[in-house]
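Next comes this protein.

***
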Amino acid sequence: MYRGNDAIALAIEKKDGILTAEQVKLSFDSVSGRLIKEAIKEGQEVKKGDIIMQLDSTDTDLSIEKTKAQIAQLDAQINSQNGAINVEYAMTDTQEVQTFNQIDQQKAAIASAQATYKNKQIDYNRKLQLLEVGAIAQSDLDDAKMALDVASADLA
């Protein structure tokens, strides 16, 4: 269709190499800055690599610096969070060690209570045999029974 010789085909072919104000406006809609130099005027032919216009980069430079500052702030926040995480890990490790120490203390207390109970059981059985032969008074056996009950409660 573009290869025809009608007016529209010829206009499109000629227009493809011409820069219009509308094309410039569309190309730079998202770009901010003050125009410093306009090298090409509307209707002039341009080639690839030609400088069309030059904008003041102050706004862009400030935006870049602002973004760099925001990145630095986020990096600082990340480092702060990493430090807090490391502190929490250290605290958790310390609490773990303390908990294991408490467990060891409780195991030792249980072992002590078991040994005491066994000793009181032996003492009670001895006194029971001595009472049967009349070698001790009932109060001695009662004392041994009470000590055995206390050791049993401690063990429980």
